[in-house]
Amino acid sequence: MAFAHQVGGHAATILASPLSSSTLIKPASARELAFYSQLGPALDDGHFIGEWTPAFYGTLRLEGKVGAEGGIDKLDTAGDEAGEVEPEMIVLENLTYRFVHPNVLDIKLGTQLFDEDASDEKKERMRKAAEATTSAQTGVRLTGFQVWDAATQAYVTTAKPFGKSLEVEELALGIARFFYPPLSPQSRAEQATSSSSSPASVPRALPLDLLLPVLRTLTRRLDSLVALWSTLPLRMRGGSLLIVVEGDPAALEAALLRAAAPNSEEDDDGESVSTTDEEGNAKEHTLLPFEMRLIDFAHTRGLLAGEERPDEGVLLGLRTTKKLIDELVTQLEEKQRDGDE
């Protein structure tokens, strides 16, 4: 079954895990499997996997077919048609698991989106794609996102075309559309194609006294990731930064209060408490206010001979993301001082 909160990547390539709702499965490319099993565990004294990426739980072989492009055709019978293989899946942490209504943002990182070993045709196509969007100049492209609207009790989804249509100077409105939708007017591309008779739905914003602590903590975490990334011997092509924020105001407030309390996930004896109830759902005391991890390592590798660290394209993207959130914080703090919420 397709994963309900996938907002980026190829459609339906991430599946809800048959093992637990706390895990996901996806087709395992050789390079991504090597990253999670070999390259990643050697980074940051062994703390990189699970701290800055989803946790990795191994592989799983399913009965079914994976098409030549990696899409899963079916999962009930094995087949050997041309271009198809039985799928070996990697089992990863579900980063939306510890949320009631997760707001999810996928930010594609890097100024170069193709592998060095890609065909000349693909290199040229991906180079043009980067230059036609915000990737080439800023190292980021807003791939897609979903925002929970507490007023309608439904998600408002913004798909890939929005991020691809943004000009560099419009990235701020894209970030605002995810974190604080009322501040986000239509982009120029939307103004040119939209009809006044069908205005876009604008989700109700999270209260500023809850959102601002999340944004300030995200910027501090981005500072730490920038410092770490500057030291890593990696090249990541087409990877993303995934940001998840609790979209339910009551759940967000409770999660922030729990996060501020010491030993919030330990019992009275200091022993770790299970995060999962008998039905496989995250226990209330383990729910999070936000999460931020790097994802999508199908085109990540170690440095080749003569290459120097860091990966400047990804580093630019991380710094751009921090700058955009910093600017949004300044804007929202002014709004809060004016009492205009």
Automatic annotation (TrEMBL):
SUPFAM superfamilies, per database record: SAICAR synthase-like
Keywords: Kinase, Transferase
Comp. bias (Acidic residues): 264-279
Keyword Kinase annotated: yes
Cellular component terms per the entry's GO annotation: cytoplasm; nucleus
Biological process (GO), any one: inositol phosphate biosynthetic process
GO molecular function terms noted in the UniProt entry: inositol-1,4,5,6-tetrakisphosphate 3-kinase activity; inositol-1,4,5-trisphosphate 3-kinase activity
Disordered: region residues: 260-285
Signal peptide interval: none
Highest taxon in the source lineage: Eukaryota
Top EC class, one word: transferase
Enzyme Commission number, as recorded: 2.7.-.-
Family annotation (PANTHER family): INOSITOL POLYPHOSPHATE KINASE, KINASE
Family stated for the protein in its record: Belongs to the inositol phosphokinase (IPK) family.
Protein name: Kinase
Species the sequence originates in: Rhodotorula paludigena
Lineage of source species: Eukaryota, Fungi, Dikarya, Basidiomycota, Pucciniomycotina
